[in-house]
Amino acid sequence: MGQMILILGGARSGKSAEAVRKARQIQDGPVLFVATAEPGDNEMRLRIEKHRAERPVHWHTLEAPRNVGKAIGRQPQKYSTIIVDCITLLVSNLLVDKPDPYAEAVRESVDHEIEEIVSAATGMPSTSRMIVVSNEVGSGMAPLTPLGRAFRDLVGQANQTLAAASDRAVLMVAGLPLVLKGEKSQRPIFTSSASEVYATAVRDE
């Protein structure tokens, strides 16, 4: 059974950069980066290319906008670290597939995806880990549209399920990690200079 680490945060909080830093810090074997984003327009395509360029060239990338857990399960059991970035886009991909955001089929598809991801982490060797990135969506105002509210509800429930299954959960705020679950630390998990924190805030999505 592999370790699961959940990294939550708002937009530009440093969550994606924290996942990458964690994997680079460990350096005990091959890394698989699972990307759930779809290049729906030129702006998103540029973001995807930018993020890809910031990752180490020897990392493997798996593009899985849906069926993430199953896609991971089809990979060879050679990765010591798997990063899933991110749950927010995965839920968004599932929402656009259905005309009614509150349809029971949407909730069931999201629940199934999360269950498959947890199962994939459980099936990893005990010396490996899966790092899952997601947005914290409950801190702002209630969305004004039914689609926005359905999205918030689905991501929030997915985060709760992942947090319950995780060995460690971290909330990123202004580039700083706050440990929510797991071994407590008297100092930040990653120490960064002011310039590094600023760079993280600028590039993280």
Quick gist of this model?
Helix content is about 45%, strand content about 20%. The chain has 7 helices and 7 strands; from the N terminus they run βαβαβαβααβαββα. Mean pLDDT is about 90; it is low at about 185-195 and about 195-205.
Description:
This protein is of the alpha/beta class and 205 residues long. It is 43% helix and 20% strand. It has one domain: Rossmann fold (3-Layer(aba) Sandwich). A seven-stranded mixed sheet has the order 3-2-4-5-1-6-7, sandwiched between helices. The two termini are 30 Å apart. The relative contact order is 0.23. The C terminus is likely disordered.
CATH architecture: 3-Layer(aba) Sandwich
**Helix content estimate:** 40-55%
The CATH homologous superfamily is termed P-loop containing nucleotide triphosphate hydrolases
The residue ranges in which pLDDT falls below 50 over 5 or more consecutive positions are 185-195, 197-205
Number of domains: 1
Q: How many whole angstroms does the radius of gyration measure? A: 16 Å
- SSE topology string: EHEHEHEHHEHEEH
The end-to-end distance, rounded to whole angstroms, is 30 Å
Number of H- or I-type helical stretches: 7
Please tally the β strands and state the result.
7
Strand count, sense and closure of the main sheet?
7 strands, mixed
Can you identify the CATH class?
Answer: Alpha Beta
Q: What structural category characterises the helix and strand content?
A: alpha/beta
**CATH topology, anyone?**
Rossmann fold
Mean pLDDT: 89
Strand order of the largest sheet: 3-2-4-5-1-6-7
Strand content: 15-25%
Shape: globular
